[in-house]
UniProtKB/TrEMBL annotation:
Domain Circularly permuted ATP-grasp type: 74-453
Protein name, UniProt field: Circularly permuted type 2 ATP-grasp protein
Pfam families: CP_ATPgrasp_2 (PF14403)
Organism (species): Ideonella paludis
Highest taxon of source: Bacteria
Length: 477
């Protein structure tokens, strides 16, 4: 595995151009002052309630509320890199939305033999109830979180790769916004020394996007955020976004369907709902159609949706495009639907359902990262180079029992960024999740959520696995 690309340092003695001003500032900071700032940030985050629920944690107990560690040192992206990444994100999300529409309509990409039909029809995320259903503007994933990593090239440069597409209910944008507020509070002088593109307008962009996909004929749409409730791991974010957009936060029990329209119970009587930003998975949305035991959704919701009387963001069935077994086909989707070469590359991927790929993976388990196709949060995966012989043997058994449930990728050495840890400032591996909004237009705020693996040498950045977050700066020209 090649040495990691360091975001700040070109060599052990030189700093990249876009980090020079920050590096001079950092050199003037005393460690005790930085440590005090970190403690201040933790205190404020706890007071505000910016936590993340971790389920099934052996050490901390079930459903434990944890603070997501915030690192003081920002990840900085120069303007020219962001412009290229933004173009690639627009292209990719546009193609993915075209793909979802195609799958639930003409299925031209299946007829062309580009994506195998069984990859769709046997996929747990495929919703036959959506066949032939038209959605406003043909947009299925209004909010997408695209995970991007950077790996080192042989010449020492770094290249960006898409690691994962999150098109169902991507989370983390509230931490992006709160991280920026915290950095501005702790280090206001930094913002006079740098021209940093703003992110605070994200809730306004989100609300504009949601309103733009409201049912036809609705001039002043009522938008709500649907949450599974306060025990959900991302409940803070649900409440935060509703508050920032100035819309109601509702649970399934607050809604009802009458004459194929959705209404919200209020103290002034029923009020029609036009757009639901739902943070509830498909399976729990409508007990009439999906899980009959669900108490998180609203009976009749799909009827109202198929009648065109309410918009669900993101659409039912969107998960067919962010399944990890579909990921390897996204570059071909870009070419098929847009007639363009992909700007952002995929990580090379082995489909374990393929006998040749499976044999290669079994022969190289100690070198690869193997993931469940439906897995999330860093669970259900094997990081070969960091695994014990016993863990590899156990995973081999699972892989042989159900090979179609797994994909494998080379172990990329994710880029590193200086991070303030107990021992001082040290490199830690990071990724980036920009949030792409699709309505009448495709737009995003500059940057996204940078996640950092706080354990030395770890490549797992997920919050549920002990990762932290950083403020992400995109410099303006």
């Amino acid at each position: 595995m090649r040495p990691s690309f360091d975001e700040m340092h070109a060599t052990s003695t030189t700093v990249r151009d876009h980090y020079r001003t920050y590096d001079r500032w950092l050199g003037r900071q005393e460690r005790d002052v930085m440590r005090a700032r970190r403690e201040e940030a933790e205190l404020i985050f706890r007071r505000v309630g910016i936590t993340f629920a971790v389920y099934g944690d052996k050490d901390a107990g079930e459903g434990t509320e944890r603070l997501i560690p915030f690192d003081l040192i920002p990840r900085i992206i120069p303007a020219h890199e962001w412009r290229e990444m933004e173009k690639g994100l627009r292209q990719r999300v546009t193609a993915l939305n075209r793909f979802i529409h195609d799958i639930y309509h003409g299925q031209e990409i299946l007829k062309a033999g580009i994506v195998p039909e069984e990859q769709i029809t046997r996929n747990a995320q495929f919703r036959p109830q959506m066949m032939g259903v038209d959605v406003p503007g043909g947009v299925y994933s209004q909010i997408a979180g695209i995970d991007i990593v950077r790996a080192a090239n042989p010449d020492g440069s770094g290249s960006y790769y898409v690691l994962e597409d999150n098109l169902r209910v991507p989370s983390g944008v509230s931490y992006m916004l709160e991280n920026r507020k915290m950095t501005m509070r702790l280090f206001p002088d930094l913002f006079s020394e740098h021209r940093i593109a703003p992110v605070a307008h994200y809730p306004d962009l989100l609300l504009d996007t949601l309103r733009s996909v409201s049912p036809g004929g609705v001039n002043e749409p009522t938008v709500v955020v649907l949450t599974p409730g306060m025990y959900n791991s991302a409940y803070f974010e649900h409440a935060f976004l509703a508050q920032q957009m100035g819309v109601e936060l509702v649970e399934g029990q607050d809604l009802f369907v009458k004459d194929d329209f959705v209404f919200m119970r209020t103290t002034r009587g029923p009020r029609r709902v036009d757009v639901i930003y739902r943070r509830v998975d498909d399976d729990f949305l409508d007990p009439e159609v999906f899980r009959p035991d669900s108490r998180l959704g609203c009976a009749g919701l799909l009827r109202a949706y198929k009648a065109g009387n309410v918009t669900l963001a993101n659409a039912v069935g969107t998960g067919i495009a962010d399944d990890k077994s579909i990921y390897p086909y996204v570059p071909k989707m870009v070419e098929f639907y847009l007639g363009e070469k992909p700007i952002l590359n995929n990580v090379p991927t082995y489909l374990c359902r393929d006998s040749k790929d499976l044999q290669y993976v079994l022969d190289h388990l100690g070198e690869l990262v193997v993931k469940e196709v439906h897995g999330a949060g860093g669970y259900g995966m094997l990081v070969g180079p960091a695994a014990t012989k016993a863990e590899i043997a156990e995973f081999r058994t699972q892989l042989l029992a159900n090979p179609s449930n797994y994909i494998a990728q080379p172990t990329l050495s994710l880029s590193t960024c200086p991070t303030f840890v107990e021992a001082g400032i040290a490199p830690r591996h990071i990724d980036l999740r920009p949030f792409v909004l699709s309505g009448k237009t495709v737009q995003m705020v500059p940057g996204g959520l940078t996640r950092v693996a706080l354990k030395e040498g770890s490549l797992v950045v997920n919050s549920s696995q002990g990762g932290g977050t950083k403020d992400t700066w995109v410099l303006e020209d």
